[in-house]
Specification:
Elements: E1 8-9, H1 12-21, E2 24-31, E3 34-41, E4 43-45, E5 53-59, E6 74-85, H2 91-95, E7 102-112, E8 115-117, H3 120-134, H4 149-156, E9 159-165, E10 168-174, H5 181-194, H6 197-215
Antiparallel strand pairs: 1-10, 2-3, 2-6, 4-5, 5-9, 6-7, 7-10, 8-9
Helix pairs in contact: 5-6
Amino acid sequence: MYIPKYHEQADVGAIHALMEAYPFGAWVCPSADGLIANHIPFLLDKSRGKFGTLLGHVSRANPVWQRLLEGAQSVVMFQGPHAYITPGWYPSKSEHGKVVPTWNYTVAHAHGMPRSVHDEAWLLDLLFRLTTVHEASQRLPWNVSDAPRDFIDKLLRGIVGIEIPIDSLNGKIKVSQDEALQDRWGTVEGLRAEGSSNASAMALLVQQAITECAEK
């Protein structure tokens, strides 16, 4: 991933936070037949390894676990807030017109060698951990133990675990850092006016970057 210095996210904690807030990763790995891409929710275990370990599962019918190349790196991409930025929000547009559209975004790329896991105890533990995380916001959280055990055992036989120790971790946060200050504030106002949750999230990131820059 190309990362200009002013768009680099070097804080591992911040990268982890993005991965946990947007856990539905795009996983790309090589095979003898070319690249394979899958989209699955990952659990980040920060206690394992320098950069953590990603845990997930796929359907046993998905051939990806059979086509993994031993010793080959894969990458999982996590996409945070992103938004189209129109130059119509820039005061500079009316001053000199030397402005163009752009796209703001936040992403994390986690690289590591994946392995498939077939142990049912491992898989069951993963399901408990995944549902605990994603059911936390529900008024009445569902738990794996709410379903009949024989039903869960049958489903376990239909999935394969994926474990990816993270060897390298890259983060990019492109939030108008290279624009004129007045245009950055114009971007904040424009995004807020759009009103969507995604635009509001990006407006907050742009404003935070402005504040951080002023504090340096």
